[in-house]
């Protein structure tokens, strides 16, 4: 991504379209928020089941790249595409960003960030390699393993030594492969936990982006499971896929991703080693733009923020970044109404505790974590019907959730959700391509309202989001 294009939402959409991830009628499914997963030209490098269990060994990308395996130039395999390596290495779009993650920290910007932080060489610093490579101890590396491969196959799919020789052979099944160590990424909770390790953070080495890192130039971190999965998709959902893994639901994937993001964020915040930085709080957890906004010093006080009805915090206190909390509140009312009140109460208690003290905030975070976990389980286990996406879109832009879009991060997450769910409706045959194209202008107005943090205006965004949701509702 050339410098200067990073705030242009249409650039990201074009990358996704070129990769075949978006239908041609969609102007933009990808937000400026996706900057959170890029460092200069490439991805921050996600995901992270990076510690080998038992005697498992990471064999390296080269062991997957044979022409009879996943290394074909064209995706014409009978069972799987067999051009997965080519997709992973795609040089010009987000599809190949994982393979470029190591190169990102070797870039001038990556080197400068490491130098400013006093880390030494970024390509050997654990703080960088934890997410910009498949970072494992030498004893767990096979003979063809290379750290410089970046975020390789096994970062997501698991250490391959237990299943690589048998996963394609008769009578191997998907179930037997999982038993041998393959990570079942078709399960939303599993996928979310793997992705979140780097796309939000974990307690493992090198998998937490502190505010200091962002001050040095690292992008802001954000997460949306269904979109991020689509950007990296290197498989076809055909009859064979469905027979082995079941038919995926974008609504389930998105909703579980929101729940797991809240669970992970609050879990990390509750731990003092992550939630605090000396006498200061760890600002990573807070809404960036609550502080990073224009300040005017004049005789007339012009307030540059709106009071958020979902945050009972002392006036003027920097708020927790609650973009995923807002989304989970909406989806709980839409799809798991029996748990919605408890989650909203825990959410408000958490915000309230932020103004009381560290111990109170940590305890409230753990309570909110538990509610998010219960919602994750419920959302993962429920059945999904054709109207669910419509119901969720209406809830996001409705009278309860809509007023909570007072900040850029939450608003970006909202329009990303609405467009993700709209594309899911088309992909799953709920509405036609032509019908979706007919309301594209409404979606684009919502995108325009969050094109950059500098031009974001809450009231303008809420109006645009409401119009977009109403337009989608007419297709129901």
From TrEMBL:
Bilayer-spanning residue ranges: 21-41
A Pfam family recorded for this sequence: Cytochrome_C554
GO terms for MF: oxidoreductase activity
Highest taxon in the source lineage: Bacteria
Keywords tagged on the record: Membrane, Signal, Transmembrane, Transmembrane helix
Signal peptide start and end residues: none
Domain Cytochrome c-552/4: 83-158
Name of the protein in its database record: Cytochrome c-552/4 domain-containing protein
Species of provenance: Allopontixanthobacter sediminis
